[in-house]
């Protein structure tokens, strides 16, 4: 079964997926910190719709998706919307546009459906390059963004009280999240990308003893879940996206069984 | 003569309409000053105005140049689930644990979402006091504290507590604290002077 991992035919999809499975859960931890985990779902829907629109006019899905997601992230920042409400509207807008574009172009509903489930096995050099770019940007930006985002969450009055410029961190993170969801959606699909953002972070927030462990667990769950789903999908000839979500939900069920210490009164 | 860290001159503050004032006060380096008053007298609004969280309707607030400020709100942000240890919390607050009371140190390795309300309150106050801020604003820091922990808080507010490094020691010698409380007895234990606040 492990030989499948080293099959040249599947090498590019495998590398693409690993890079994405490492990046998305780390971004998910920060979205969970900001209580904006629905961001992933909203941005993924916008990315899917704009990827499909891009394909209709001859632009690769990964680039088309990027435009939609970044536009969503920028809109959220410019309107200073916070919390999950704005992402709820993004989900509705993206879903509606996805269905209408699929129905009114020559691409048809099948391709729209493929974007929801993912096109990982069709990943080529462009997708690998996009995933590598995401991983590098994530590794460079997160160590700088994370302390600022944690401080902004725990001490929301600090910047204003000290007359420091506000929101510069928020814009950078919003754009990073948009980039991640666009690349994730265009390769492993809308639901797979959303699950990679939400589930490992949820598990880590539940069981990790501290923040470093949270990040480690996010990366481990994301990467481990991805590799397991990848192997099972090939071995059992199952669709990858739904299997990835199922594997991650299995991890979540295991984590839910771990008893957690309660807050004393 | 050492310049004042903060001068509040004939300040009237509120949220669109006046809540407190006119108030005048001066805070010198090293002072611990209490603001006392009945519920609704505008003590918290005054702190909010100093921290730029409330409207200044008349009068003015003058800060020392490049004054750094730590503001501990009446209800510190507390997420239901947050896997951050007490030590990590202090690190992100840019504060040191050197000199921290032993009873508080027990929380450094635990997740902050699993600390009791009193433990978390004291950790937040410590984070404000043990950082680099020259002016610390504490709004009702005795919230959630039993008598034993209130005594700990009094110890923490004592001058000279904790001196991790030369730079921080210098900041701390200069640091002033403005404490809001509705408990006069507590303020008299920790403050060099207490100012009574009355509403508009």
Automatic annotation (TrEMBL), chain A:
The chain crosses the membrane at residues 12-33, 45-73, 85-107, 119-142, 175-205, 211-233, 240-258. SUPFAM superfamilies: ABC transporter involved in vitamin B12 uptake, BtuC (SSF81345). GO terms for cellular component: ATP-binding cassette (ABC) transporter complex. Keywords: Membrane, Transmembrane, Transmembrane helix, Transport. GO terms for biological process: transmembrane transport. Belongs to the ABC-3 integral membrane protein family. This is ABC transporter. It comes from Thiocapsa imhoffii.
TrEMBL record, chain B:
The keyword Transcription does not apply. Gene3D superfamilies: P-loop containing nucleotide triphosphate hydrolases. Residues 6-199 form the ABC transporter domain. Keywords: ATP-binding, Nucleotide-binding, Repeat. GO terms for molecular function: ATP binding; ATP hydrolysis activity. Signal peptide: none annotated. PANTHER family: ATP-BINDING TRANSPORT PROTEIN-RELATED (PTHR19211). This is ABC transporter. The keyword Disulfide bond does not apply. Pfam families: ABC_tran. The lineage of its organism: Bacteria, Pseudomonadati, Pseudomonadota, Gammaproteobacteria, Chromatiales. InterPro entries: AAA+_ATPase (IPR003593), ABC_transporter-like_ATP-bd (IPR003439), ABCF (IPR050611), P-loop_NTPase (IPR027417).
């Amino acid at each position: 079964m492990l030989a499948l991992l080293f099959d040249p035919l599947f090498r590019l999809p495998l590398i693409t997926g690993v890079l994405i499975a490492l990046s998305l859960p780390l971004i998910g931890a920060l979205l969970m910190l900001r209580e904006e985990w629905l961001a992933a779902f909203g941005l993924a829907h916008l990315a899917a719709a704009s990827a499909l629109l891009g394909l209709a006019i001859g632009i690769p899905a990964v680039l088309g998706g990027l435009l939609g997601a970044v536009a969503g992230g920028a809109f959220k920042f410019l309107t200073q919307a916070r919390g999950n409400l704005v992402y709820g509207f993004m989900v509705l807008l993206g879903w509606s546009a996805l269905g209408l574009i699929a129905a009114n172009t020559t691409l048809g509903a099948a391709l729209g459906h493929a974007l929801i489930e993912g096109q990982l096995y069709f990943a080529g050099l462009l997708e690998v390059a996009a995933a590598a770019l995401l991983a590098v940007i994530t590794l460079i930006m997160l160590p700088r963004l994370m302390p600022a985002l944690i401080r902004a969450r725990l001490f929301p009055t600090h910047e204003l009280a000290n007359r420091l410029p506000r929101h510069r961190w928020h814009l950078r993170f919003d754009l990073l999240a948009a980039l991640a969801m666009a690349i994730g959606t265009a390769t492993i699909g809308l639901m797979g990308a959303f699950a990679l953002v939400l589930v490992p972070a949820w598990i880590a927030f539940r069981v990790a003893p501290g923040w470093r462990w949270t990040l480690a667990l996010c990366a481990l769950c994301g990467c481990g879940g991805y590799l397991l789903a990848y192997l099972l999908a090939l071995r059992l000839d199952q669709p990858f996206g739904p299997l990835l979500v199922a594997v991650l939900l299995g991890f979540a069920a295991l984590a839910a069984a771990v008893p957690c210490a309660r807050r004393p009164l | 003569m050492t310049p004042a860290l903060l001068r509040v001159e004939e300040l009237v503050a509120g949220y669109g309409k006046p809540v407190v004032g006119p108030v005048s006060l001066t805070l010198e380096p090293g002072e611990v000053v209490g603001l006392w008053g009945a519920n609704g007298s505008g003590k918290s609004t005054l702190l909010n105005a100093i921290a730029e969280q409330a409207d200044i309707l008349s009068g003015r607030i003058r800060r020392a140049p490049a004054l750094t400020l730590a503001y501990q709100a009446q209800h510190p942000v507390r997420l239901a689930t947050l896997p951050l240890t007490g030590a990590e919390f202090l690190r992100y607050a840019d504060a040191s644990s050197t000199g921290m009371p032993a009873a508080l140190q027990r929380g450094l390795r635990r997740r902050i979402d699993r600390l009791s309300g009193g433990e978390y309150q004291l950790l937040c106050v410590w984070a404000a006091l043990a950082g680099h801020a020259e002016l610390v604003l504490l709004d009702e820091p005795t919230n959630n504290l039993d008598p034993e922990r209130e005594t700990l808080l009094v110890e923490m507010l004592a001058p000279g507590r904790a001196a991790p490094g030369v730079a921080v020691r210098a900041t701390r010698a200069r640091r002033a604290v403005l404490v809001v409380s509705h408990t006069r007895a507590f303020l008299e234990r920790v403050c060099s002077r207490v100012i009574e606040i009355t509403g508009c």
